[in-house]
């Protein structure tokens, strides 16, 4: 009888621990996603960044705008790219000018939607905030 009660108690603790782990993981993912989306939306609305898309070499300006924001927000990375998914900023400068990795840009670049995604990219699996960059005329430019 004592053995059965002990097994029941251990079983309840295991189920509770699994539930708690899942709950904490989901909560953390949601909070990180909200933070990433906030940073993405803020960066996409910087007037100097939007103006840089009109330059011959947007990456030269955009990288300088984004680098201090990444450090200040403690984001692992902030990537800005054009409508063809070509990067204008990246924490690893050798990735600038190359196409973004991951198939999760469509909603921002085609539909103009801001959202959170979990995808594998050049820096590994990450929770990403995606926000479109609009021109002054309201068209999606990045």
Can you walk through the features of this model?
There is one protein chain. It is built from four helices and four strands, in the order αααββαββ. It has a two-stranded antiparallel ribbon with strand order 1-2. It has a two-stranded antiparallel sheet with strand order 3-4. The model has no long low-confidence stretch (mean pLDDT 91). It is 50% helix and 13% strand. By secondary structure, it is an alpha+beta fold.
How would you concisely characterize the structure shown here?
The protein is of the alpha+beta class and 142 residues long.
Which strands sit side by side, in order, in the main sheet?
A: 1-2
Q: How large, in whole angstroms, is the Cα Rg? A: 21 Å
Q: Helix content range of the residues, please?
A: 40-55%
In terms of structural class, how would the helical and strand content be classed? alpha+beta
How many strand units? 4
Residue-averaged pLDDT: 91
Low-confidence stretches: none
The biggest sheet amounts to: 2 strands, antiparallel
Helix count, DSSP H or I runs of 4 or more residues? 4
Q: What order do the helices and strands follow?
A: HHHEEHEE
């Amino acid at each position: 009888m004592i053995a059965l009660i002990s097994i029941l108690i251990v079983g309840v603790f295991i189920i509770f621990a699994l539930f708690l782990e899942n709950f904490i993981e989901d909560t953390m993912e949601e909070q990180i996603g909200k933070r990433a989306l906030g940073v993405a939306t803020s960066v996409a609305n910087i007037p100097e960044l939007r103006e840089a898309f009109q330059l011959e070499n947007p990456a030269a300006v955009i990288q300088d705008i984004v680098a201090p924001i990444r450090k200040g927000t403690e984001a692992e990375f902030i990537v800005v790219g054009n409508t063809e998914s070509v990067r204008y900023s990246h924490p690893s400068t050798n990735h600038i000018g190359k196409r973004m990795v991951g198939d999760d840009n469509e909603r921002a670049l085609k539909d103009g939607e801001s959202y959170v995604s979990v995808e594998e990219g050049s820096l590994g699996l990450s929770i990403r905030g995606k926000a479109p960059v609009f021109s002054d005329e309201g068209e999606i430019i990045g």
